[in-house]
Amino acid sequence: MSAEVDKSHVGTRKEEQSVKASIKISGMSCAACAARIEKGLAGMDGVMAAQVNLATETATLHYDPNLVKPDGLVKKIKQLGYNVPLEKLNLDIGGMTCAACSARIEKKLRSLPGVESAAVNLATEKAAVEYNPAEINPAALINAVVQIGYKARRASEAAPVGEHEQEIKRQVSLFIFAVVFSTPLMLGMLSMMLPFGHLLPMELHSALAQFLFATPVQFIAGYQFYRDSYIALRNRGANMSVLVAMGTSAAYIYSVVATFWGSRLGLEHVYFESSAVLLTLILLGKMLEAKAKGKTSEALKKLAGLQSKNARVIRDGQELNIPVEEVVVGDSLVVRPGEKIPVDGIVREGRSTVDESMLTGESLPVEKKEGDPVTGATINKLGTFTFEATRVGSDTALAQIIKVMEEAQGSKAPIQRMADVISGYFVPAVIGIAVLTFVGWYFIFDAGNITRAILNFTAVLVIACPCALGLATPTSIMVGTGKGADYGILIKGGEHLERAHRIDALVLDKTGTITYGAPEVTDLAAAPNFAGREDYLLKMAGAAEKNSEHPLAQAIVRKAEEKGGLDLKAVSFEAIPGRGVRADVAGQQVFVGTGRLMREMNVGLTEDFQLLVDQLEGQGKTVMIMALDGRAAAAVAVADTIKETSREAVAALKGMGIEVWMLTGDNNRTAQAIAAEAGIREDRVLAQVLPEDKANKVRELRERSLVVGMVGDGINDAPALAAADVGFAIGSGTDVAIEAADIILVRGDLNSIADSIALSRATIRNIRQNLFWALIFNTVGIPVAAMGFLSPVVAGAAMAFSSVFVVSNALRLKRFKPSRLKG
Q1: Does the annotation count 509 as an active-site position?
Q2: Which of 300, 391, 585, 804 is 20 to 30 Å from the Cα of 346, by its Cα?
Q3: How far apart are CA 521 and CA 499, in angstroms?
Q4: CA 191 – CA 279 distance, rounded (Å)
């Protein structure tokens, strides 16, 4: 649902103070709903006019902002039993330097009226905001970020070409500039300790020369820290730049005073090299961090680069080369060997093999013939074919994959909450500790020694690193979700990636998940009183099942068509969920379904007939019983083979300590046969479960304190997927199931479940390592610096490389490989 607020003044004198607002409303089902909302809104004080349009699901109002507020209008709509859908806005944020910056932007956005949630990701430099469009608009959200000193734009707006590369170049240039001017200062400091120090020019020891070298580093190379500090302090905040600016300025100002007024004040030593070298090392860290952060988003860039630029379309009988953006649904397109398929579609003529490795991670080409689907950005290998475009632009599989990955990489995992809380208090706390350090050393531990007090003060400020804390989680999430995409695993958010590592029970739907979901009729056994009429019974069953979408029904329909077609028509068709179908065919009432359906319809089965059913079910086949006019007529056996990888995947999941359960609507005997073939324990088979009860079975497992994952592919699996802690949808499944799931397995291979859980565990382990080192670094480093055991230069080097270490550790996830593929 979309929504917008259009505010404008209305012409009459009475309505000079009125505001016009358009509010989207969901949940209306008829004209009575619209009338009820209209009456409720019109009756509010301050509302001058209210009109609700059922077709567009929009309320248009004129109201006095002095008497009623937008949130009051929304509250009234909700009180009436309807909803105002939220909208989501993704923003690109510029100018953040550490976790304190992202925390400040989050706090600002959350404070705005109408904002339900806001998450700012330091690593991706993005913000995800959920807001009520009746109260605030995107322009106001962007303006709020800009007002506190950062850059913001809609993520959908094109970024300047090479923006990230330009930032890296800028950091490299500043670092080289700083190196050029700080090297003489470093040499001057080393000359006192090195045996060849006497060979260096004596001018390097001159305080005035050091002042001339240090000043460009302090105010040109270090300008960004002063600018960021000013913006942060102006908005009553503090960040890493404040710590750097305070620390280096203390050493620099002290040295300037010592240079020009030292003889009068009794100050002998200068520490220009401390401030200049410190800034140089911090700039080195920023440069390396920018390069490393660029590598974390390589997977997303790689996917975006896969899109074909042009398409060969047939219009008016002619082949035309056009930009892929101009392709519309229904166009006929030609693809030749070696070319990329431009958009999603269905093959209408010809056959070929297609490399779908970008989608599934599988290197073997897939054969395509008439009627088969093809996916944009995959590569045609051998033949030439024509296909019809079914999804273009932002609707293609590639575009949806990129969208899922962008949202996942911009999301926050629950494990990050601790880091966010710490970041909010970190910088003010460090400044307080630094001030106490100065006071302690100057007045107590080394009374009167201002030099030592300033050096320890500076060391405390620069050893503290909120960057490492802020980057610890999002960088790992970025690399982890990107690596998942390489293996055909699409993870919708950081919270799902984190939750997956705790799964200790996994429920697998049978049809289409463990099995191929393409059953075939293997037996049709007629009851004694219908012996010899098998072909007729098959036609009757096929006619009754023709309107059903169930895979078992479609198997019967296909078999009937093979045996001579479907010349009989069904009337009064009724699908009975979880049981079967009822229809009138050729003047006879036909039931096709389970034994439960036959009992409910009072259809009796002879002992011999029941024995036949039991024998077929014992072979792992699904048996449907057909009744004509209340009498058992035939048993139709359907077999669905399990996927080649199912047994391997179940064994892998068991090896990870996960309980594997199978859930099916099939009878217990058939379910047990399939479970045994897949390697699932017989006491972990949930059989004869109706579609509406699947979610309840998942909840029952959760009530046993198990963290439950659910894997499914059909519409009837969607409630169970939503009820699970983590829902996995097979990529070949229905859109409803994919929408309800948290993780999408593009391949449709159960091994992907084990891979996704292994990836989740590796990512969370990596995040914990990052958080441990970031916290230990600050927890140990700050007290050590306060006790005077670290020079500012060493402290600055440690701070500069702490964030580089965290990002580099996250990049190790790029080497992740499922255990079955190792060796």
Answers
A1: yes
A2: 300
A3: 41
A4: 21
Q: In 56-158, where do the E strands start and end?
A: 58-63, 87-94, 115-121, 126-131, 151-154
Q: Which long-range contacts (CB under 8 A, 24 or more apart) does 206-209 make?
A: 207/255, 207/258, 207/259, 207/262, 207/270, 207/272, 208/259, 209/184
With contact defined as beta carbons under 8 Å apart, do 622 and 599 qualify? no
* CA distance linking residue 633 with residue 528, whole number of Å: 8
Contacts of 169-176 spanning 24+ positions with Cβ under 8 A: 171/283, 171/286, 171/287, 171/290, 172/287, 174/221, 174/224, 174/283, 174/287, 175/221, 175/280, 175/283, 175/284, 175/286, 175/287
Collapse the DSSP code of 95 into the 3-class scheme (helix H, G, I; strand E, B; otherwise coil) and give the result.
Answer: coil
Concatenated DSSP letters of 435-498: HHHHHHIIIIITTT-HHHHHHHHHHHHHH--HHHHHHHHHHHHHHHHHHHHHTTEEE--HHHHH
Nearest to 805 by CA among 289, 178, 433: 289
Q: What is the DSSP string of 669-729?
A: HHHHHHHHHHT--GGGEE-S--GGGHHHHHHHHHTTT--EEEEE-SGGGHHHHHHSSEEEE
Nearest to 57 by CA among 81, 29, 20, 19: 29
Distance CA 249, CA 269 (A): 16
Q: At what angle do helices 792-811 and 272-296 cross, to 10 degrees?
A: 10
Q: Are 725 and 507 in contact (CB under 8 A)?
A: no
- In this prediction, residue 819 carries a pLDDT of 67
- For 601-658, the pLDDT digits (tens) are 888 888 888 888 888 888 878 899 999 998 999 999 988 888 888 999 999 999 999 9
Q: What are the CA-CA distances from residue 766 to residues 478, 503, 644 (Å)? A: 12, 18, 33
Tokens 């996830």 belong to residue: 813
The Cα 71–Cα 759 span in angstroms is 43
Q: What is the total residue count of the chain?
A: 823
> Which single residue is written with the structure tokens 């391949």?
747
Amino acid 446 reads D
Predicted pLDDT at 5:
38
| Residue 730 identity (one-letter amino acid) | I
Beta bridge partners of residue 505, listed in sequence order? 659, 708
Sequence letter at residue 637: A
Nearest 5°: phi and psi at 811? -65, -15
Q: With contact defined as beta carbons under 8 Å apart, do 509 and 711 qualify? A: yes
The answer to whether the CB of 74 falls within 8 A of the CB of 23 is yes
Question: Rounded to the nearest 5 degrees, what angle is found at the Cα of 546, between the Cα atoms of 545 and 550?
Answer: 65
As given in the structure block, the two tokens for residue 123 are 């690593």
Spatial CB neighbours of 669, under 8 Å, sequence gap ≥ 6: 614, 617, 618
Query: How many C-beta atoms surround the C-beta of residue 655 within 10 A?
Result: 10
Q: What is the pLDDT of residues 231-260, one digit of tens each?
A: 888 877 777 788 888 888 888 998 898 889
d(CA 285, CA 211): 24
718 and 701 Cβ atoms separated by less than 8 Å: no
Record the tokens describing residue 639, joined without a space.
């077999």
Sign of CA dihedral 754, 755, 756, 760: positive
Which residue do the tokens 């230990």 mark?
Answer: 776
| Selection from 729, 681, 722 nearest residue 698 by Cα | 722
**CA 690/CA 663 separation, integer angstroms:** 10
Q: Which of 228, 331, 509, 742 is the catalytic position?
A: 509
Dihedral, 582, 584, 586, 588 alpha carbons, nearest 10: 80
What is the pLDDT averaged over residues 165-188? 87
Q: What pLDDT sits at residue 163? A: 64
Helix (H, G, I), strand (E, B) or coil at 184: helix
Give CA 248 to chain center in angstroms. 40
